[in-house]
Amino acid sequence: MRTIASTDSVEDFISQIAQTPYGQVTLEPDVNPSISLERVFYRKFIERIVKIVDIVPSDIGDLLQTYYYMRFETLNLDRIIRGKFSDATPAEIQANLVPMMPYRAPSYQALSEAADIDALLELLKGTAYNPIAEKLSVYKQYDAIWPLQLELQHIYSLTILRRVEKLPRSQRRMVSKIVELEADIENFLIAVKQSRAPKEGEGFKPEEMFDATYGISKDILHMVVEGADLRDSVESLGEPFSSILAPMYEGDVALIRTNLRSQIHRTVNEARAGNDFGFNTIMAYLVFSELEKDDLVGIAWAKEQGLQGEEFIKYLVVPNVS
Amino acid sequence: MSSTSGVRPTKGYLMEMQRSIVFIERGTEFLKLKRDHLAKELSESIEVLRGRRRLLLESLGEAYKAVQAAYLSLGPTEVESQANSIRSTLDIDLLPKSVMGVQYPYIKILNKPKIEGELDITLSYASDKVYSILEEIIRLAEFESRVERIADELGRTNRKVNALENTVIPDMKAVIKYIQDKLDEEQMEDLVRIKLIGGALASEK
């Protein structure tokens, strides 16, 4: 990955990728190269998931499908909601979606062609994303989409945690740890962001924001929203949160997500260490593949910008953990 | 063509020329003052501009690093999706302002974009950095425009002063001298004529 990060241009990057199992990649015409490559890497990763799902036992396959397809679908729904909020055209919205078929949601085309957010939420009623419709009043109250985005994350986290209840304990633990850690960090980042935004007068209620919390309690999140000292709040959380969130002190919040991904890598690596053939190994393979995908997307963009490897390598995971 | 061709060597014209040259010389002095003030203003402004550009470049570097980090963290599609969701825009109005008679544009910010709460935190941090220097970028653009126009005006003023000092005033002085010489000549001829006539009259008696 370091070699790939050190390439001189997008063309060099593509020729290096061609020598890996990713093979030859083709850029879409009239599309920004880094966005085109992002779509390629997403497609390649989804192909990998499909191959794994085809050969594993069905219960594991179902969980993997839910874990990943719903994850990407949550991202797509987030982008559709954002697009509707900002009056983007259906074509503009669909151009930003992860290239996949709908999983638990109705057609992405129908959703992106909905008249407004109200109509969009109406279409999600009766699906796995039904609870999001209950946040319509909060969305209207703040005229902002973060309540809907938060709810999407919660729906995903709760769905996965319910699914893993059916797994044996040793397998359940790894997935739960990842899901809960991601949810906790995202909750904290949203709390920090909301602490910096002007409060919406007397109507602002922090207790409406966080329906599901795990390692980071609602009390701490509410304190952060209300403007409590960040360093004190982070240090009170203990590990692994304090290490993951430490870059916040220097204002390098992007590194927080890198730290989160690195922690996920460590968690998964430890979980699979005891068994080279079971569910944990399969899950580890896909988690590592996803981390690799994210790194490649970042490198592709960096190459398009003409950045040298040392300028951005700290934001990658794979070169820094292997 | 000689500056004296077509000149009427009359006393009236001489007086008119003498009044004009006083006026023009006084005007030239005022223009020189303006030129000196503009030159001083320009050299001070260039120093200030250099300093402000250096500071802005540093701030822009930091802002760009934050934008880079957001792209690396979220991926380009997510960043573009979020950036396109900002509904409010930067609205400005261009108004004229003047310094020493030199007009330059003043940019009035009517509305700044509202970005809180709509972006992921990494992008929010990046946009805060860009936002904090947005006004500085606008003021620097204004200042650069002002400096450019002062430089243009200085050039124009300098050319006028040079033209007046090296061409117009010397030509006028040449005309004045010509007229004076002509008038002196006529006066001398008149005097000689009078003396001759006087001598002739005296010898007749």
Describe this structure as you would to a colleague:
The complex is a heterodimer of chains A (322) and B (205). Chain A is mainly α and 322 residues long. Chain A has one domain (2-197, 204-321). Chain A contains 17 helices and no strands. With 205 residues, chain B is mainly α. Chain B has a single domain (29-195), classed as Orthogonal Bundle (Helix Hairpins). Chain B has 3 helices and 2 strands. In chain B, strand 1 and strand 2 form a beta hairpin. The interface between A and B is large, with 45 and 29 residues.
Oligomer: heterodimer
Number of extended strands of chain A: 0
Count of structural domains of chain A: 1
Largest sheet of chain B: 2 strands, antiparallel
Shape of chain A: globular
Count, helices of chain A: 17
- Identify the CATH architecture of chain B: Orthogonal Bundle
- Shape descriptor of chain B reads rod-shaped
Structural class of chain B: mainly alpha
Let me know the number of strands of chain B.
2
Distance between the termini of chain B: 52 Å
Order of helices and strands of chain B: HHEEH
In short:
Chain A is mostly helical.
Topology:
The complex is a heterodimer of chains A (322) and B (205).
Chain A: H1 2-5, H2 10-18, H3 33-55, H4 58-85, H5 90-95, H6 108-112, H7 117-124, H8 136-142, H9 146-164, H10 169-196, H11 218-225, H12 230-237, H13 241-245, H14 254-273, H15 279-304, H16 309-312, H17 318-321
Helix pairs in contact in A: 3-4, 3-15, 4-9, 9-10, 10-11, 10-14, 14-15
Chain B: H1 11-74, H2 76-83, E1 91-99, E2 102-111, H3 121-204
Antiparallel strand pairs in B: 1-2
